[in-house]
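Q: I'm teaching a short session on how sequence maps to structure, and I want students to see two examples side by side rather than one. Could you give me a first protein with its sequence written out and its structure tokens following it? Keep the formatting plain so it prints cleanly on a handout.
A: Of course. Example one:
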Amino acid sequence: MAEMYYETDADLSILDNKIIGIIGYGSQGHAHALNLRDSGLNVMVGLYDGSKSWEKAESDGLTVATVSEVAEKSDVIMMLLPDHLQASVYKESIQQHMLPGKTLMFAHGFNIHYEAIVAPSGVDVSMVAPKAPGHRMRVVYTKNSGVPGLLAVHQDASGEAHKIGLAYARGVGCTRAGVLDTTFKEETETDLFGEQVVLCGGVASLVKAAFETLVEAGYQPESAYFECMHELKLIVDLFYEGGMEYMRYSISDTAEYGDYTRGPQVVDENVKENMKNVLAQIQDGTFAREWIAENDEGRHTFNKLRAENADHPIEKVGKELRGMMTFLADTD
């Protein structure tokens, strides 16, 4: 079994006399900054001049300055900008301030693993990746709990990189739930794979294909939406609470039999071969190069695909049906 770290394994006092610079104040940025601040640590937020988040961060009681100013003053710098922006911001505003003894941190390994960012040899490079969206991470922290996290060390110039990473993980609340050691390679490749073949790409494609199959067979789009999209949350919640066994315990015997006998007809060996191809493109850097080039060239393909998918019939039907579901507004 992999080793897990908890509260008693992390010494928060390692960060007592350090300034932690959070670069970005989006979903992850605001959660990291506020959780660290509430853990008693000294936090600054780095944003560009004119950022819409500047006033928000200040109203939350945080010290805000430009990215360059924060990078200069901070001992620990956590990069929480979108992947495609990190390299340019690092080169323009952070790189010159990465002096020996500092720590450069990430919540996802993309830019380090694919060498879009190369830190100088005298600094620590590590990662703390909470396994939850930022808003959820913040809500859970305020309830005296935490979300699990991953910890990796890419470069240990100080000999203390792992301890500093653990302290940071405690500061954001991850050691309350458990922190798992990993590597930048493993986190990056498994994260991209999970997003592409299951969590985002795989699920979205499966739902759309099922919806289209029912509608093309003459069934009402509304019925197809309920069966293929709406009820998905009920099943995912069961997975989340108790795994596949609990899901199968909770559904009917008819559904369970269909699960065993018809699921493999849909997700067969051909699908698994396609998954292996996707993984190979992640491992050899093909996807990373494609995504970096897409951003460098103006995101034309990305924007085209976004518009096409927003116009899919399942989105139009779903918007109408969700408008009748007032209970959907009752969330944390």
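Q: Perfect. Now a second example for contrast.
A: Example two:
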Amino acid sequence: MEKIKIAIAGLGNCASSLLQGMEYYRNKSAADAIGLMHWDIGGYKPYDIEVVAAFDIDSRKVGKDVNEAIFALPNCTAVFCDNMPKTGVKVRMGKILDGFSEHMKDYDPKFTFVVSERPEATKAEIIETLRESGAEMLLNYLPVGSEQAARFYAECALEAGIGFINNMPVFIASDPVWAARFKERNLPIIGDDIKAQLGATITHRTLADLFEKRGVRIERTYQLNTGGNTDFLNMLNRSRLASKKKSKTEAVQSILETKLDAENIHIGPSDYVPWQKDNKICFIRIEGKLFGDIPMNLELRLSVEDSPNSAGVAIDAIRCCKLALLRGTGGVLHSPSAYFMKHPPVHR
């Protein structure tokens, strides 16, 4: 089958895991492919994807081949496929806007972005690149809190006439105005804020659902997360966290028959621990009452490599977006959004 041609905004750890995965599964079969939720979607396999354009702002990535740039600092995720062939696609300078938090200038360059001194790309240049590359969809992997930049790239996708997969917690697919714009152009969009394959949010949701189904009334819960990648460093700026906390909190609240008061639910990033690198540690506690109003509680510690945990989900979202393009289906893809994202327009 012909390749699914994608463009990426933000060549960080998540993009690194996605591209490594596309190559890693190339010589696998359904029988020996560990770690995928779906081997085949509409005839497309995990390796039937090709990056044709990429944008970043880090001087160590801009100008390099995509498959070289994904291993450049400050990326620190696990390398599980180090035999990455050159793609011939160079990373282009993107648009900064609010994609870089000022507090990150104060850290060692190996942990943070080194913003390129090259001129920022204009909107017209990015749209031209998307069109000339033949990209069918654009994946948004910008840092949390990049509200302006995320909307800028969504606008570029609309004007270039391609699909959009919003992997970060800026509300675009779940914003009725943006959803209507993609519907009007008959372009598919999946969003917002990608779930991990087996991460903090999906685990928390599943446990909350189990409590509900077994008749346990949940009274309080928290989810505390620590990590050492640039995502956690970026989120030390609490002003960038509003949409992230809302996304993660609503994902859990949506599973509950009776919503918890704000004081009884706390979900969100907690701290940055540099030596953890791309490892994310999550602590979940759920308190409730069961038969006879007897109190009980559950505590869980989850440790995962953060970025590979979302890569397989992204591969599935890409293939669903491709099928929508083939079928001429535009607007929000509600079922994929609910399945793959923390903050879809409609939780299911």
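Q: What should students look for in example two?
A: Point them to this: The two ends are 32 Å apart (CA to CA). Also worth mentioning: DSSP finds ten helices and eleven strands in the chain.
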